[in-house]
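Consider this:
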Amino acid sequence: MALGLAGVGHAQDVVPLPPFNSAQFGPLINVTDVTLGLGHRTVAIGPGMPVTVATDFFVGAVADPCIDCKTQLVFGIPEGTRQCIYSGLGPIQSNAVFNLLAPPNPGIYPLWATPARTPDCDKAVSVSNGGPVLGLVGVHGDPMVWSWGSVSKVKLNGNTSHKINVFPGAPVTITTNYSIDAAAGGCPGCISQVILGIEQGSKACIYNGGGVVNVTEQSFTLIAPQQPGLYPVWAAAQWAFNCDQALSWSNGGTPVAFIEVKLP
C-alpha cells in the first residue's frame, strides 16, 4: 500500500533579492555596503547559528525635543535576534561588524535595519521590529533527520557552504548522504523514496527501494530556476509505489541548501 508522506518541513518559496544593500533614513542617517558572511548579500547558515553582518554607517547631529534621547541603529532578523550597533548624538561616520543569531527553523529570512530615537540601546531594540530589507539569510536543515531516515552533508557543485550563485537555468550538481530504514517508521517492507528539488527548478528521485540503506556521496544534477532570487534546495521522503508517484507527490520539503540565481 502506498502511504504518501508530506516532506519533513516545508520549503519557503523563492525570495527576490533586495534591490539595494544600503538605506537612507531621512537626510542625516544612512547605512551602506551591508554584507553577510564573507562579503555577500545572502548567506546560508544552520538554525540558531551566528550570522556575521558588516556595514558602514553615518549619523548626523539631530536636534529635536526628545529629552535625553540618542540616535540608534538597530539590525535584526525575524525570529532571530536584533542588535543595536550604535547609540549616540552624532555626527559620526563609522563601520561595524557584529553577529546576529539565525532563526531556529529552516527557511529564508530578511535582514533588516532601522533607526530609533530612544534613551538607550535596550529601548531601541525593544521598539524596533523591522525596516528595509538589506540581505537574506537562508537557514538550512542539513542534517535533515526524521523517524526512519536522514539526508546530510549536502554539497552544491562540490561546495560545502550550503549556498552557491548560478546563472538562470544552469545545471547544479548536488551531492548528498542519506540513510533509510522504513521499518523504524512503522512500515516494514514499505517501498521508500528520497526526493530532492530546487524550488521553481527541477526535482529528482534519488532513491527508491526497501530495507536498510546508507549511501555516501551520491551525486545528481538539478536545473536552476530562470528568474533571479534566493531559492531553497529541498529534501523530502515518501512511501510510494515508485519514483514517478513519489515525484508527483513531492513539491517541497525541508530546505537543506540554497541557490542564488543571478542574471549574467
Summary: The first helix runs from residue 121 to 127. The first strand starts at residue 23 and ends at 24.
